[in-house]
TrEMBL record, chain A:
<dbReference type="InterPro" id="IPR035906">
    <property type="entry name" value="MetI-like_sf"/>
</dbReference>
<dbReference type="Pfam" id="PF00528">
    <property type="entry name" value="BPD_transp_1"/>
</dbReference>
<feature type="transmembrane region" description="Helical">
    <location>
        <begin position="90"/>
        <end position="111"/>
    </location>
</feature>
<feature type="transmembrane region" description="Helical">
    <location>
        <begin position="27"/>
        <end position="49"/>
    </location>
</feature>
<feature type="transmembrane region" description="Helical">
    <location>
        <begin position="170"/>
        <end position="194"/>
    </location>
</feature>
<keyword id="KW-0812">Transmembrane</keyword>
<dbReference type="GO" id="GO:0005886">
    <property type="term" value="C:plasma membrane"/>
</dbReference>
<keyword id="KW-0472">Membrane</keyword>
<feature type="transmembrane region" description="Helical">
    <location>
        <begin position="286"/>
        <end position="310"/>
    </location>
</feature>
UniProtKB/TrEMBL annotation, chain B:
<dbReference type="GO" id="GO:0055085">
    <property type="term" value="P:transmembrane transport"/>
</dbReference>
<keyword id="KW-1133">Transmembrane helix</keyword>
<keyword id="KW-1003">Cell membrane</keyword>
<feature type="transmembrane region" description="Helical">
    <location>
        <begin position="219"/>
        <end position="240"/>
    </location>
</feature>
<comment type="similarity">
    <text>Belongs to the binding-protein-dependent transport system permease family.</text>
</comment>
<feature type="region of interest" description="Disordered">
    <location>
        <begin position="1"/>
        <end position="23"/>
    </location>
</feature>
<feature type="transmembrane region" description="Helical">
    <location>
        <begin position="142"/>
        <end position="164"/>
    </location>
</feature>
<feature type="transmembrane region" description="Helical">
    <location>
        <begin position="170"/>
        <end position="192"/>
    </location>
</feature>
<dbReference type="InterPro" id="IPR035906">
    <property type="entry name" value="MetI-like_sf"/>
</dbReference>
Length: 319, 311
């Protein structure tokens, strides 16, 4: 090591020598961080740049790719199926995120007031988040099955008519949303709870002295002070929700040999990422698929930035 | 952060025993006499626990229903009204799943991939995090910022070229197509750097330097013993995520004899759509091992997840 240090620093000017020498002496640290950066260059950065190039090409995976300039993006802008998938994704996002956030807030507020069995309760609420999405999507397919499913059996038992969960576009969107809500409400409640517990009890004591009841202090203290946590949960929900794939892919039985990954009845379950997957891997349109991927990236980015500015910036005017 | 900061005073712990909550609260003898100091608190607590318990039951109900379907014959499931409790056909249904599609190989593959990815991630992420947290070297801050930026790149942007790369490397259909790209990640480095900064005191680092310890010896003798709980969290997190991963395995595992559980499960469903008993037995196999592992570390895990988000 000393040998390397002296040979390297011998040829450099005195001004860069200390920095260079420090860098050489710190070689174990560079070796330690190298695996991540090597993997990222090979499987992160290079594929991302390549996909940008690919989005200007037409290629089915065989033979030579053909350069088509902006054609893929022009086609994307007027592709009705793509815009249908955007619409579906936003319907599912709204139907799942709004109830999920509201229920999670209520559950967190209740857990915050519960002293006994709080660990058991927290584990029970968290369990849906670690169960496999594929397994749960198959199970929900059975529960929301139209003639023998538990959901319709329950509706019938209380005198309501059957709902066509899996054979209408809105039914599919509703079922996918219920599945997403089921898997993420407990997780978000745990995060809201941690945010609530970091609020000092003195604030609540002071409010109580001023005569504020529990409901009033929830709206006047908990919600405003919880704002950074709510922003975090919202941004994570936007990123994951706008890129949902597995739920609708499995629920709509997408391995059908004739028209795979098409999103079920009326293509109601066709989300943006499912459409991307269908074009790229079921129809082998690799160039067009890449342009869809960039389209999705832009849409997600715009919404993350909007919610970031709205929530975080207003929170902290100095930023 | 205290574990149970409450905005309102709560009744003395003796009173809550009478609340009808989890079954463990049930006692064969009469409940202790409730102190009359807080007469109006009790109904509210009872209502609170009633709602919390119903929510918790709703959370675990699908798992119960999975067991019900997996342990009954398909004709039992199609009965109206449906059977609401577990039957005696679980072993038979699991046997069917193993017979019709070879479910054993996917199970072994999934365990292998999840274990391999978990150990590689723990090793490479903790090495990198240790370097970022405890060593000064030129470019450190810029490189750490670069790690954070890689967070932002979404998966599906890279998935087509990554697939093409796998074709060129001849890795398509091979399990290492799942393992190698996942062997280190930005989240783990970020999380462990925070952890190491607070868990490994600088004095210990200085003392080990005086003992003549080099980087690797400091990593093994000073860092690793102190960050075991942090590694436990990251390990569990990585294991769960790898076990449940679907999109990438579905894309790259083109050889039907070499797939993971999640892919096998989706295929089982599309091939035998109506044999619910067998399909749910397969789903149960995909869920239960993970559930057991999760429950062992759940308490610590949930605390760490929450702390990570608040930071």
């Amino acid at each position: 090591m000393t040998l390397t240090a002296s040979t390297v620093s011998a040829g450099v000017s005195t001004s860069v020598r200390p920095r260079r020498r420090r860098a050489v002496r710190a070689w174990p640290a560079y070796v330690a961080i190298a695996p991540f950066f090597i993997l990222f260059l090979c499987f992160g950065l290079y594929p991302t740049i390549y996909s940008l190039v690919l989005s200007f090409q037409k290629w089915n995976g065989l033979g030579a790719p053909e350069w088509v300039g902006l054609d893929n993006y022009v086609r994307l802008a007027s592709d009705d199926t793509f815009w249908l998938s955007v619409r579906n994704t936003f319907v599912i996002f709204a139907l799942s995120t709004i109830p999920m956030m509201l229920i999670a807030l209520v559950v967190a507020a209740m857990l915050n007031n519960a002293v006994r069995y709080s660990t058991t309760l927290r584990i029970a609420y968290f369990v849906p988040n670690i169960t496999s999405v594929v397994a749960m999507a198959i199970l929900f397919g059975a529960i929301f099955g139209e003639s023998f499913g538990l959901a319709n059996a329950t509706l019938n038992a209380i005198g309501l008519p059957d709902v066509r969960w899996l054979s209408t576009p809105f039914g599919i969107q509703l079922t996918v949303s219920i599945l997403i809500t089921y898997q993420w409400t407990g997780y978000n409640a745990i995060i809201f709870l941690a945010g609530m517990q970091s609020i000092g009890s003195e604030v609540y004591e002071a409010a109580k002295v001023d005569g504020a009841g529990p409901v009033r202090s929830f709206f006047s203290i908990t919600l405003p002070l919880l704002r950074p946590t709510i922003a975090f949960v919202l941004i994570v929900s936007i990123i994951t929700g706008l890129q949902s794939f597995t739920e609708s892919q499995v629920l709509t039985g997408s391995s059908s040999p004739t028209n795979p990954n098409s999103g079920g009845a009326g293509q109601g379950g066709l989300t943006m990422v499912l459409y991307f997957y269908q074009q790229a891997f079921s129809h082998s349109k690799l160039g067009y698929g890449a342009s869809i991927a960039w389209g999705i990236f832009l849409i997600v980015l715009v919404f993350v930035i909007i919610s970031w500015r709205y929530n975080v910036k207003r929170e902290d005017p100095t930023r | 952060m205290s574990s149970s900061v409450s905005p309102r005073p709560l009744p003395p712990s003796g009173t809550a025993v009478t609340a009808p909550t989890a079954p463990t609260a049930w006692t064969p003898w009469p409940a202790p006499v409730v102190p009359t100091a807080l007469p109006r608190r009790r109904p509210r607590q009872v209502g609170l626990y009633l709602m919390l318990t119903s929510g918790a039951l709703l959370s675990v109900f699908p798992l119960y229903w999975l067991l019900v379907i997996a342990s009954n014959t398909t004709s039992d499931i199609y009965k109206s009204p449906p059977k609401l409790w577990p039957g005696g056909h679980l072993v038979e249904n699991i046997g069917n799943a193993f017979d019709r599609v070879d479910f054993l190989a996917p199970l072994v593959n999934t365990v292998f991939v999840a274990v391999a990815v978990t150990f590689l991630v723990l090793f490479f992420d903790s090495l990198a995090a240790f370097a970022f947290a405890k060593f000064q070297f030129p470019g450190r801050n810029a490189l750490f910022t670069a790690v954070l930026v890689t967070f932002m790149l979404p998966m599906q942007l890279a998935i087509i070229p990554q697939f093409i790369t796998m074709v060129n490397l001849g890795w398509v259909g091979q399990l290492h197509a799942l393992i190698i790209p996942a062997a280190a990640n930005a989240f783990g480095i970020f999380w462990l750097r925070q952890y190491i900064s607070s868990a490994v005191p600088d004095e210990l680092m200085d003392a080990s330097v005086l003992d003549g310890a080099g980087f690797m010896r400091q990593y093994v003798t000073v860092c690793l013993p102190l960050i075991r709980p942090g590694l436990g969290f990251l390990g569990l997190y990585t294991f769960i995520a790898t076990w449940n991963d679907y999109l990438w395995p579905l894309t790259v595992l083109t050889d039907p004899r070499r797939i993971t559980l999640q892919v096998a499960l989706a295929q089982l469903q599309s091939a035998f759509g109506q044999d619910y008993g067998m399909i749910m037995a397969g789903a149960l196999l995909a869920v239960v091992p993970l559930l057991v592992i999760f429950l062992i570390g759940a308490r610590q895990f949930i605390g760490d997840i929450a702390k990570g988000a608040i930071r």
